[in-house]
Amino acid sequence: MNKQSYQLVIVGGGPAGLAAAQEAYDQGVRDILIIERDFELGGILQQCIHNGFGLHFFGEELTGPEYAQRFMEMVAEREVEIKLNTMVLEVSSDKKVYAVNSKEGMLEIKAEAIVLAMGCRERTREAIGIPGSRPAGVFSAGTAQRYINMEGYMPGRKVVILGSGDIGLIMARRMHLEGAEVEAVLELLPFSGGLTRNIVQCLDDFDIPLRLSQTVTKIHGKERVEGVTVSKVDKNLKPIPESEYHIECDTLLLSVGLIPENELSMEAGIELSSVTGGPIVNECRETSIEGIFACGNVLHVHDLVDYVTEESKLAGKAAALYLQGGIKKAKKEVSIVAGDNIGYIVPHKVTEKIEGRKRVELYMRGKRPMKNARIVVMDGDEELFSKKERYVKPAEMISIPLPEKMIEQLASNRVEVKIEEGGAE
Q: Angle at CA 13, nearest 5°, toward 7 and 17?
């Protein structure tokens, strides 16, 4: 076996891995390796040819490949070592990475620190259990996006899309622009899972109907999809008998959720969250194994790549500080708890004392749409501070800064964040 060693190994060369590498280098780490299983860097951004990336981070509107290119150039300027077409098979708890590629064969790479940035994958038809035969014409939305934008193939001409997450909304517009008839976007929940701007720009602007509280309950066709049965659902998300209707189509695109890719994390023995599917981390994005960090969509699924970058730079900086001995344990560990109307919150705890830190950013999602909400941060049973939000939508991430002075002066070891609907009125 080919044995190698690096100070910092980053698993994944998408936007999270690139940002973590760039930041770790700028913090003084020179011995960095990025391992990427694909033939190029950039991850899923390479097939996202629409604009809307970079408004927060760069202050300008970029396409996915343009956004990726900027970080690829930053990494290239810093001469960070990269292994493409290399599949990581295992990450061990003692920070060894086992990988394989066609040039070097089997690799055992010893690292002093590791950043996990493997991203996420789409849920499939099997994951949601749609009955019916298995004809051609059923695609995940991301697969269809790759076919059109990178391979030059058209998946179909008459399309139904199940799921109104951002990928589904963007693909509705993309299929329409390529000449397909998009019959409808169906959503199981009573609200869309996508950003408001995508509902407006991808559906409303092209008169594509969004049908809420509806789902596909059967796929018809033998060789090729010929249509789908659609049912309305009740408040428990169960199909309502005799509400079915038929839509003729030759293609069904599924945009039914994303799953963080944590098989390597599980094998390493890293503790995972049952809510996000990602590792449980402290404010440095350090997992339950010291010296192994996680960032990007492998940690929790983000709505904007700008937030992926922000979080991954934090993980890259923390990994550098860890390697340089710049992280010390705080006097007490503070749990960060998702309270009423909060779906999840990251980080899960604050455990470190870092010199010069001004605040810890808390990222969270609301459970359901709300108006005139008040986001309340509690120190045990006492209200620490609150923030008004005109609208809260599960698709849009909320961030709140927890100032360092407040962390130092906490009376309890438990910070709870909750949302009060109508509390801002």
A: 60
Q: Computed over its alpha carbons, how large is the radius of gyration of the chain? A: 22
Among the residues of 297-363, which ranges form H helices?
305-323
- 89-107: pLDDT as tens digits: 999 999 999 999 999 999 9
Beta carbons of 37 and 88 less than 8 angstroms apart:
yes
Identity of residue 203: L
Q: How many CB atoms lie within 10 A of CB 74?
A: 17
If we measure between CA atoms, which residue out of 9, 59, 67 comes closest to residue 41? 67
417 within 8 A of 375, measured Cβ to Cβ: yes
C-alpha distance from residue 415 to each of 33, 252, 274, 306, 383 (Å): 36, 44, 20, 26, 10
Peptide bond into 403 cis (omega under 30): no
Rounded CA-CA distance 139/180 in Å is: 15
- Of the candidates 66, 65, 63, the one whose C-alpha atom is nearest the C-alpha of residue 50 is 63
CA distance 115 to 99: 15
- Count the neighbouring beta carbons within 10 Å of the beta carbon of residue 270: 21
CA distance 197 to 95: 42
Q: Are 132 and 222 in contact (CB under 8 A)?
A: no
Domain that holds residue 300: 1-119+261-326
pLDDT tens digit sequence for 5-40: 999 999 999 999 999 999 999 999 999 999 999 999
Say how far apart CA 192 and CA 174 lie, in whole Å.
18
Distance CA 129, CA 149 (A): 28
In the chain, how many domains are there? 3
SS3 294: strand
Claim to verify: residue 252 and residue 296 sit in the same structural domain: no
CATH of the domain at 304: 3.50.50.60
CB 174 within 8 A of CB 49: no
99 lies in the same domain as 59: yes
For residue 217, give the 3-state DSSP assignment. Answer: strand
Residue 179 to residue 51: CA distance in whole angstroms: 20
Instruction: Write the pLDDT tens digit of every residue in 105-155.
Output: 999 999 999 999 999 999 998 888 898 888 999 999 999 999 999 999 999
Residues 303, 342, single domain; the answer is no
